[in-house]
Amino acid sequence: MNKVVKNVEEALVGIEDNMTLMVGGFGLCGIPENSIGQLVKMGTKGLTCISNNAGVDDFGLGLLLQNKQVKKMISSYVGENEEFERQMLSGELEVDLIPQGSLAERCRAGGAGIPMFFTPAGYGTEVAEGKEVRVFDGKPHILESALTADFAIVKAWKGDTEGNLIFKATARNFNPMMAMAGKITVAEVEELVPAGELDPNFIHTPGIFVQRIFQGEKFEKRIEQRTVRTK
């Protein structure tokens, strides 16, 4: 099945106000830059965004926050975004902070059809408030629920016309599990090739999880904090 759409505008058709979106990436690495830019243009409001982080003030999901398009963030790390902090402390933005491993597993579980699971992460902290606790091998675990989304938006290094994806280096973080957990998964890729050209042994996300794919353009690939070695 050819899942290619001609551009980002066509790829995001159907996203409406108050939907839940999963957005792949880690920091600014592996984020779907074209799709985020299109969401800003669309002006869709009241979004719940599930993402490891909220970008920075002037890039990534930070652009949606600046535009007041996000109602709630479900994340694990938010320390690089002053606008995020301001909105959270002022009560403008609802925030659900989750241990990073738990966030990844909750997305993976959603894609695998596992509704809930027990984990020791977060026990004894605010994360555990109101959640069931059970003891396994003498260690307390809390019950966490799976996460799914109306749309999952991911970014891959290579993809083919059937939606098979290969991620590169650090970009192979939250992208694969989020691709599994969206009712509709949109993949923007740096290189789009015909079906059959990708070695099946190196495919990270099978095309069965992807409904739409397009070749992105003009990726900036910014670095959050550029660190250089002193002479």
Automatic annotation (TrEMBL):
One of its GO terms (molecular function) is succinyl-CoA:3-oxo-acid CoA-transferase activity. The keyword Transferase applies. It is an enzyme of class 2 (transferase). Coiled coil: none annotated. SMART domains: CoA_trans. Pfam families: CoA_trans (PF01144). Its EC number is 2.8.3.5. Keywords: Transferase. InterPro entries: 3-oxoacid_CoA-transf_A (IPR012792), CoA_trans_fam_I (IPR004165), CoA_transf_BS (IPR004163), NagB/RpiA_transferase-like (IPR037171). The keyword Ribosomal protein does not apply. Gene3D superfamilies: Glutaconate Coenzyme A-transferase. It comes from the Bacteria. Belongs to the 3-oxoacid CoA-transferase subunit A family. This is 3-oxoacid CoA-transferase, A subunit. It comes from Fluviicola taffensis (strain DSM 16823 / NCIMB 13979 / RW262).
